[in-house]
Amino acid sequence: MGAMSEHMIDTRGVSLCTESFGDPSDPPVLLVMGSGASMLWWDADFCRMLADRGRFVIRYDHRDTGRSTTYEPGQPGYTGVDLADDAVGVLDAYGLPAAHLVGVSAGGGLAQLAALDHPERVRSLVLVSTTRAVPGGPELPPPTEDFMHFAASAHVDWSQPDSVVDYLVDYSRVLTGGRRPFDELAARDLVRRDVERAHDIAAIQNHDVLPDDDRTHPPLSSIAVPTLVIHGTADPMFPLAHGEALADAIPGTALLPLEDAGHGVERPDWETIVRAVVAHTAPRS
To answer: Residue 241 is part of a domain; what is its CATH number?
Structure first.
């Protein structure tokens, strides 16, 4: 698996599409994307920035996104914990005993579950635009009014690609939080590529209807690996208090606020995020 290669893997009866960047002998960084989002949402140029600074970077399509195993819309047949276990399955396929996990949004929750359930497989955590993956702690603020209005009023025809593209672009605009300019052309290009690449883009809805898993998890305070929380001050889905509470819940965790950033990994923050990830994942004596 050389400088950059797409690679289908099989883990626990499912096929996942993965892609690697950089030198396999460098410290491994597994990028875990959020709900309903394929690996394309980890921009290839962002991945190359990390690889160019001495990290072996892997991104992958969750089930029901991109080219990975896809289920009938409304019938996922797996749980969120299965998605967390898939991350470990990617490490298995690449022959990696452990890796640094960088998760965004729901991917940050999956990274937390992986660290709780498979602590020996996780070297460190970087948790971006996310919230606590297990119950406990103070009550946290709801999404913003703009976010809630969009969630309640948006319409999409999943059988029509143009309708799906328009919906996902509008959703991307809401996620930026409204304090920065929105690059609609870039967002539309990304969304269109994602829609065209997916086995069935309607299946991304399955991430919103996952059945409960009966597995119990240790408390977040039991996470012992170095952890960094990165959170936008204008995040409309998980307001900044979510990032602050997450940093408080995991011992020794640092918090890096991104001024005026919304939800996700936005291009204006790439340099800041890459620099922080490289520093956080540097070999420790």
So the answer is: 3.40.50.1820
Catalytic residue among 172, 263, 269, 280: 263
| Nearest-angstrom CA–CA distance, 156 and 183 | 21
Look at residue 163 and tell me if it is in a domain.
no
String of DSSP letters for 70-139: ---TT---S-HHHHHHHHHHHHHHTT-S-EEEEEETHHHHHHHHHHHH-GGGEEEEEEES---SSS-SS-
Among 105, 124, 129, 172, the active-site one is 105
Q: Which domain holds residue 267?
A: 4-140+198-280
Please state the domain count of the chain.
Answer: 1
235 is catalytic: yes
Q: Does residue 285 have an active-site annotation?
A: no
Q: Choose the catalytic residue: 61, 64, 235, 269.
A: 235
Residue 145 domain-assigned (yes or no): no
105 is catalytic: yes
Residue 4 pLDDT level (bands cut at 50, 70, 90):
low
- Is the residue at 62 inside a domain? yes
Residue 16 domain-assigned?
yes
Segment 230-240, tens digit of pLDDT: 999 999 999 99
